[in-house]
Design goal:
Length: about 450
């Protein structure tokens, strides 16, 4: 059956419309399948493991204080005479860096040590003289003691002798007094007998004469006793005088001994002072040469020229120790510090070394280096962050590389402290809520320096 052109155009139009309808019907189904596949992949990704990390930035430093850059200082003031090094030069411990000359007037004399030795010898003579004087005074005190003993014995004997005389004279006085009393009684009896005619006047006169003689003896004996008592008092006074004179002489000798001791001690003090000054002068002359405290490189000289004066304790050069034990100094937020332990693993990126690091999958990172936390500061820095010192670890074969030998202190570093693995959905939820990374258990080790 023949189809005219009009019908043919009509069928063609209908065919085009059917094709568009067919395409319009298949498009949403395909989109739905794609979306379903993407949703399935997204759900799978949500349950994939994600390694939590704590980021931090900082610089390369040295783990030990003696490995960090230091300034070389001169211990005495002086005038620069000669530079023995240049910037960038390698020096060994004890190598000469700078030579200075004296600027203090107290040390200008080139014969100063000899002059001080002469003063020391003179003071030593003063000490010897004071020692001899002490020995002589000590001998004098011993002689005084021996002389006192002799004089005291003699004086005490005189006192005892005087006491004996007093006792004898006292006994004689008692005897003559009794004789006198007897004479008085006899005279009274004779006078009574004379009245009765028994005795003659001559007998009475004889008894009266005898009474007068006995009375004279009493008076004489009384005077003798008084003289003995006075002699005893004089002997005791002499004994006291001897003791007083000895005490006076002893006090004088002790004063001379103290004076000699004071002179000796003063001489010893001046001797010690001179010896100290001699030692200081000798040591000071050895400080005219400023030497390197350890092996390293002279990074920069802080003074220039010849003839420039420098003060005591002034920095003259910066020295970088050789072969320092490098470490990474990174800073982390205070919120993350409780989760970090000593010996926590860290992945590091150094400036100047190309690297690619995935936050959640550190195992697939390229160009990073392994480290381990060595020190965690107990106080925050001025910025409010806490400093971590990360030391190198032994590289795992076919996995890690040792830290570059070309690392220089002060260059930048970016690090991530490695924590435990969590699902991706948990990490997204934590990030959206601003929560810190989590741990499976509370840290068992107190954070701090190891």
């Amino acid at each position: 059956m023949a189809i005219n052109a009009a019908e043919k155009g009509k069928w063609e139009a209908m065919g085009v419309l059917s094709q568009h309808e067919i395409l319009k019907t298949r498009g949403p189904k395909m989109l739905g399948r794609v979306m379903l596949a993407l949703l399935f992949v997204f759900v799978i990704i949500l349950f994939m493991p994600w390694r939590q990390t704590i980021p931090g930035r900082g610089n390369v430093t040295a783990l030990r204080p003696e490995d960090r850059p230091q300034t070389v200082q001169n211990q005495i003031g002086g005038r620069i005479e000669h530079w023995a090094v240049r910037e960038g030069q390698h020096v060994n411990e004890g190598d000469t860096i700078l030579i200075i000359s004296e600027t203090s007037q107290s040390y200008f004399d080139p014969q100063l040590p000899k002059r001080l030795e002469e003063q020391l010898a003179a003071k030593a003579g003063n000490e010897a003289a004071a020692t001899q004087k002490m020995e002589a005074t000590s001998a004098q005190m011993r002689a005084l003691t021996r002389g006192l003993a002799i004089k005291l014995n003699s004086a005490e004997n005189k006192v005892h002798q005087a006491e004996n005389y007093v006792k004898i004279d006292s006994a004689d006085l008692v005897a003559v007094q009794r004789f006198y009393e007897i004479s008085k009684s006899r005279l009274a009896r004779y006078e009574a007998g004379y009245t009765n005619g028994l005795f003659s006047l001559t007998d009475i006169e004889s008894r009266r004469l005898k009474l007068q003689e006995d009375n004279a003896k009493v008076i004489s004996q009384q005077n003798k006793l008084n003289n003995s008592i006075q002699s005893l008092l004089n002997a005791r006074i002499e004994l006291d005088n001897i003791r007083a004179e000895y005490e006076q002489s002893l006090a004088k000798a002790q004063s001379e001994m103290s004076s000699a001791l004071s002179s000796k001690v003063s001489a010893q003090g001046e001797i010690a002072k001179l010896r100290n000054e001699i030692s200081n002068t000798t040591i000071r002359r050895g400080l005219y040469v400023v030497r390197a405290p350890q092996k390293g490189f002279v990074v920069k000289t802080l003074k220039a020229g010849i003839g420039e004066n420098i003060k005591e304790g002034e920095s003259i050069a910066t020295l970088q120790p050789e072969a320092p034990l490098v470490a990474a100094e990174i800073y982390v937020d205070a919120m993350d510090v409780p989760l970090i332990l000593n010996n926590s693993d860290v992945r590091l990126q150094f400036e100047g070394w190309p690297s690619v690091q995935f936050s959640g999958w550190p195992s697939v990172a390229v160009g990073t280096f392994a480290g381990r936390v060595s020190v965690i500061d107990l106080v925050s820095s001025e910025s409010g962050k806490y400093r971590l010192l990360v030391r190198p670890t032994l590289p795992v074969p076919d996995k890690d590389q040792p830290w570059p030998k070309q690392l220089r202190q002060g260059s930048g570093v970016y690090g991530r402290v490695i924590l435990r693995s969590v699902p991706v959905w948990y990490e997204i939820w934590r990030q959206l809520n601003g929560f810190p990374p989590s741990l499976e258990a509370e840290p068992a080790v107190q954070v701090g320096a190891k």
